[in-house]
Amino acid sequence: MCRWLAYSGSPIRLEELLYRPRYSLIDQSLHSRLGVETTNGDGFGIGWYVPGAPEPVLFRGVGPAWNDPNLREIARSTTSPLFVAHIRASTGTPVQQTNCHPFRYRNWLWAHNGSIRDFHRLKRDLVLAVDPELYTSMTGSTDSEVMFYLALTYGLRDRPVAAVERMAGLVESVGRAYGVPDPLQMTVATTDGDRTWCFRYSSEGHSRSLFYSTEMSALRRLYPEQESLRGLSEETRLVVSEPLGELAGAWQEVPESSYGVIQKGDDELGRFEPAMP
Which residues form the Glutamine amidotransferase type-2 domain (predicted)? Predict the structure, then answer.
């Protein structure tokens, strides 16, 4: 499968999360502890927002993240208040740049860990459900990108949770029609540059791992000696496939079949329920 993280809060350099933590995303590309595969070397990507720009910047590569000098250069010189990073382990589709996450449509980003089981059998029916006006923007061949464009088709830009629930409902319906057991496995991060939505769901009820960071005020009380926590705002949040470190109390598991919204003010956590479109 894959590993990803989504960050929102005080502007920081990308390397602070991609390289510096003990279990950074780059470390996870070689030594994942909670993933299906230990190594995630089939490409990588980062999408980050620049205040005032209409679209996020996207940098993707087909090589392993741990061995890309351009990624290291960008990470140490780029600061952003909101970004999504992904390291890929292919589930069967080609290793090519257009198949690397995150995917971008205008101001939206999308990253996924998981798969649509027997995607090669379900793909035609799913792709035909994509809005024709959106279809021409699809450039890759992954199930993850099809999920993104189905969510866009069902209203991601207006009602994100409902749109992803409809996408999941369609995948399960088509899967059942083809006799595919437990067709959907997903953790997803998607953002419009202001709010970030995260989802954890699987048809079998045993989803891939997903965690979110504890509130900054609580972490500072627990670890007053941690200098890295001092400059971060109370709005700062991080969602990850697996924790970046071992500070007790720093990470909370996202419940099974749930969605979360990271936003200014109170965040939101709710029940995720697929629905037929």
Answer: 2-243
